[in-house]
């Protein structure tokens, strides 16, 4: 009896081992071609792939498909539901289009990297409403400024409720589109470094509860009072503003005063003037109110000089065009001049003839008799 019990136990253990092995096999499904798989990480890097491999193990947690030639991703890119996938890296693929429902089968995606692509189209329906995305890297992801407003429309949808970190550095943003961050109610870290930004419009950063904002290496010359007030309303916010071409004139006075009284700028000691010439490389913290001048007499003089030069060039161009027209129509002008000459000659001959008649009495009498 005890022997049969032992056999039964062994059979049960064997069945359990088989089931466990079967589960592992089903979960893994083998590693896709041109990829390497380790634990729950799949890497398909620099393989000239045109699409994301479909035969991904269902237990994949991190997927790296970087440095390939994947121009677009759509719902077809992830046909299998990957419940365990949390990290997705798709950088450096020359990607141009992110289509709707593309992340529908990745319900637990937390970290997404689309950096260093050439995105022109980003569907507003790319993410499901119940997505769990928290960290999003879009550094250098977009093609250029002309596509920015439409490409960033997905940020306005309001379904990225768990997003806490957004990297939009190294993009040609210039001006942030209206309401771009209003739907990001959990955003605490935002990088806009080196994005050619020339101004921060009123209300742009009002909604997100930012703790860290990187605005380094942009084209900011000043910050308006409304923006400074928004910064002050976020006491936990740390700013990074170095590398901007600050113009130290009367328009920057409020910023200088704010910098001296605020501790929100982490790199405040690295902020220096670029203009005017007398204050070049001068630290903003050391600029006095008396130095912030708005005397544009010198600038106006140079503008006037430039205008005069431009006017001279325009007049010269008009003269050249006039001479060119004369040259091209020289035969017609010559004919016209001959006609005028002949008309003048006929007129003068008639006048001369009448003069001779009037001056000679005999011819005058003859002329009178002939008239009779």
TrEMBL record:
Biological-process GO terms, alphabetical: negative regulation of canonical Wnt signaling pathway
All residue ranges annotated as the LRRCT domain in the record: 244-295
A Pfam family of this chain: LRR_8
Matches recorded under SMART domains: LRR_TYP, LRRCT, LRRNT
Protein name per UniProt: Trophoblast glycoprotein
InterPro entries listed in its UniProt record: Cys-rich_flank_reg_C, Leu-rich_rpt, Leu-rich_rpt_typical-subtyp, LRR_dom_sf, LRRNT, Wnt_signaling_inhibitor
Gene3D superfamilies the record matches: Ribonuclease Inhibitor
Source organism (scientific name): Myripristis murdjan (pinecone soldierfish)
Residue stretches spanning the membrane: 308-328
